[in-house]
């Protein structure tokens, strides 16, 4: 039954009665449907039901996470008048914006495309990149870099190989064609992601403060334009699809996966930036991402405190006979909604004509506060805009500590009778760890990404952080960016795991010579209706928030991806963190690789002594257990401040932090930048109850730096004065071998042998027969 | 680079994405007056060198460069080249020049079937008065970034390339399966140059090399001999 005031629709499909089954199919709970009726004062039309279902999905509404996310700091305490201020806060707009001085700013954000990539890896990953780029240029910023954060099952599985190949070529296809360099990323392989890979993509753009654009519809009578690609039936209800668990039937949900056209995106970037550069022309702009036309109209209206009326007959359509439900829910890519200053319609049309793109006048801003949609002149939806956005349901879910934590957190190597390594065992373990795909070189991946276009990439992929030169007007600035999250730690101790993701990311930036500026996060978790999953989510968010407050790094935006489960169960909790840092002077840029010539090696932070959650336990013993490594925030801060000061003093030749694989992996990786380099390392003076934990443990707050021999004692003295543990552990020098003296004897490897396994491990696994 | 007012024109197609890189190679790297020419233009204006930059012109969905060759500006570029004007095509620009028949040969998918982005060592060939080991040295290093850089030509064509000294550069470690490891060629007349490697990604102090400046100077020296003397 249609409610009062809405005419019956001539299309019988759209006129069907709303049954409880139909409501359930749209993913709305009975009590949520009751709320829909209250907002509308009666039953919704089919189109309205569809609109509510996507807008109230987790993907759009954050209904299960909003209260948690309020704990994130959104402003920088230490910001100055012209540096570090948050200009657009998290949640306000499509992406946050932060001041980098001299009237310039950066916009950046990370977003997931996990479910589409699980079903259709190439298009899923490609459109993930396309979507995040639109989130950035819709703010008025020119996209200047991309990174991505990927998680897959074990690489030995054929399904993982297919997904990895598809995802990497999808990212390459899209990013390379639009001409935005992919300068870094992180990749882990772990069984928990089998069947549910994670594909998180980040984009960063630059803009002047006066170029910031908002997704707001204001000014009654202002025309609403639809620009970009035509609307098709692809991606129908993708936001709702992303908000449920993957099942055996999901692969038949292909229509929920969108298809990308990077060429169209490139034109759209240029046309939109050109249009936005015209003073006063654009009132508001928003991309049509998740929930397409629906989301962009009701969000812009709601933010602007206005209403919007649109007529769907004006929407460019790829196929005939699409009804209002399909048009409103389509997630066809490369489309934007633009609100233009009344009377200046010809100016926007001229710009889009130059770029041979659609610019269709589809509606008007009103003062009713309602989103009104017509097709063929008939009203198909009439909804108070805030009902879809600010007044969407919010839940406080139940959290319950998972039972497995009792067992894993009590695990110790002594208690479980795990024998320590002898010399032969240690000699064999290092090459195995180096060639594990999680630790091995990701060259097979990043050589498929154009990481040099726009000619600003300073530190290429493969180091602790990517470094990019930004050309800002006539001046230039250098920024570093790093992604991080070890899901294994988060599984074993969600709060601390998240804390580690954050501090390690910061440490990576400091190793590159950067001061951390701001963070964006992608929360990848399982179904929040399961209390154990919600516990992980809650603990992780609180851990991230604690680290952000401690280090004064605000969160400028992010994304939540729940329901990451396959029939095998939920993924390891994965709160991916990405932090942007600022490098004061070009001379401070530091790489992880030691350079040819003699250099003293210093271990900062003390001897590693923990085994819990390590790759060593996983790769060598098949264990995912123990507690995550301890984090001492004040000690971490002392270390990072000290390292940055030494870098600025010009005393640090290279810096690489200890992470997966521990000390020996870090030392080996330092040598892989120069084929002529070897090292003689002496660890016999370090206090080490267990050899395995010393060599391969993943204790936090450790960095290996190389310094000129003449600076060695000065750096050690300065560390002592700063209260940072520092040990001279030998020297890198021209040579073929890595030798490591321990209290139990000396280990020796050929560096080229270690490098070969590290460099070619993923390549060999992905080799296609018959191709060079 | 002072003295002669050498003017550079960089063509822009929809989907060009190294247009700014090429622009900065000449304007920032060499300090020369440089401007863009839009693909719908039928005139190039005054130019001493026309650069066709990298990217994915018109999306390159059919075959790289296959649509771009029909664009209005390419008609003007063809006239310009036929009158003896100097043209440099980089990456997609090289593909467009081959499709337009202004350079011999064709570029097909990399033998790996994957995009490749890395820095290559290149052996410089003796390709006439401008482009040779005297102007460039025997080895240079330049980045590549392409999925279709696998150079192909028939046997007779290849012999002509060798005989006429039309090969500019060869990869020392062939990254894409190119015949004879050929990375760049010129036309027989010696005024049209095309290469897959990117001189426009090798001209700033933090780039993998600064050999892009050498390449740009070598090509300019064809009409402006004083340029190559300055590069020494």
- Cα separation of the termini of chain B: 13 Å
Average the pLDDT over all residues of chain B and give the rounded result. Answer: 95
CATH superfamily of chain B: Class I glutamine amidotransferase (GATase) domain
Strand order of the largest sheet of chain B: 2-1-3-4-11-10-9-6-7
Rg of chain B: 16 Å
Distance between the termini of chain A: 65 Å
Briefly note the structural class of the backbone of chain B: alpha/beta
Architecture overview:
The complex is a heterodimer of chains A (772) and B (232). Chain A is of the alpha+beta class and 772 residues long. The radius of gyration of chain A is 27 Å and the shape is globular. The model of chain A has no long low-confidence stretch (mean pLDDT 94). Chain B has 232 residues and is α/β, with parallel strands linked by helices. Chain B has one domain (8-231): Rossmann fold (3-Layer(aba) Sandwich). Helix content of chain B is 26%, strand content 24%. Chain B has helices at 19-29, 72-82, 92-99, 133-136, 155-163, 211-220, 225-231; strands at 8-12, 34-38, 49-52, 86-90, 106-108, 116-124, 139-146, 150-152, 167-171, 182-186, 192-195. In chain B, the strands form two sheets. Chain B has a nine-stranded mixed β-sheet with strand order 2-1-3-4-11-10-9-6-7, sandwiched between helices. The longest helix of chain B is centred in the N-terminal third of the chain and has 11 residues, at 19-29. The model of chain B has no long low-confidence stretch (mean pLDDT 95). The interface between A and B is medium-sized, with 31 and 33 residues.
